[in-house]
Prior knowledge:
Helix content is 0%, strand content 54%.
Amino acid sequence: QVQLVESGGGLVQPGGSLRLSCAASGSIFGINTMGWYRQAPGKQRELVATITSGDSTKYVDSAKGRFTISRDDAKNTVYLQMNSLKPEDTAVYYCQMSIRTLPFRLEYDYYWGQGTQVTVSS
């Protein structure tokens, strides 16, 4: 019943910027942690950034100082602002959210976006 739709990916030159968005819709009664993962061709999926409901953030070392994760709870949306992009940032980026889907159920379940391609190349 819950769907996460991503947007904002594309082709950009090294040093450029992109902003990814991920909006959740459906039966949503609360969202805890939101995050972004990425998977490059032939490589393992890695966690890029997370943001808690209290706006505490964490980043993979390679993204620190360049990427910024943020959230808009009114829109059930998480963003990833990516600056100073490098070729090694090329990957499919997936958003993830921990979502409460029933009004009287306290448990949160994880949901994933479909992925959006980010390509950094000259």
